[in-house]
Amino acid sequence: QVQLVESGGGLVQAGGSLRLSCAASGRTFSTGDMSWFRQAPGKERQFVGRIICANGATSYADSVKGRFTISRDNAKKTVYLQMNSLKPEDTAVYYCAARTSLFGTYDYWGQGTQVTVSS
Predict the structure, then answer these.
(1) What does the H/E/C string look like for 76-106?
(2) Is CB count within 10 Å lower at the N or C end of the chain?
(3) Are the beta carbons of 94 and 68 closer than 8 angstroms?
(4) Spatial separation of the C-alpha atoms in residues 67 and 75, rounded to whole Å
(5) What's the rounded Cα separation, in Å, for the pair 116 and 80?
(6) What is the Cα–Cα distance from 74 to 60, expressed in whole angstroms?
(7) Contact 51, 58 (CB under 8 A)
């Protein structure tokens, strides 16, 4: 079983930066992808971006493209979400998720970490 733990959230002023971490433990795979999602109060969960495990290729939602960057450290089994130029609308609980197939569902989720961007 795979366990994911997010960390790095906090309070930051608009225009600031934060780096979130998602550490994986248990059985891990070299296939599939790991993604970041976020959910604000009263809103549906929103896709943020993903990184493909096999080659490190990334993609992002339009709302964060150019501001957020996903990277990984394979030795540490950790995926990062670097968030720059933060906006108040980025305020949400951020979750990482993993799946073993690019065509499957996300079966593994972290507990979430709160990001609050003040104006």
Answers:
(1) HCEEEEEECCCCHHHCEEEEEEEECCCCCCC
(2) N
(3) no
(4) 26
(5) 18
(6) 20
(7) yes
Q: What is the band of 46 on the pLDDT scale with cuts at 50, 70, 90?
A: very high
For residue 92, which of 57, 63, 55 has the smallest C-alpha distance? 63
Q: 74 pairs with which residues across the strands?
A: none
Concatenate the DSSP letters of all residues of the chain into one string: -EEEEEE--EEEETT--EEEEEEEEES--SSSEEEEEEE-TTS--EEEEEEETTT--EEE-TTTTTTEEEEEEGGGTEEEEEE-S--GGG-EEEEEEEESSTTS---EE---EEEEEE-
Radius of gyration, alpha carbons of the chain: 13
State which amino acid sits at residue 65.
K
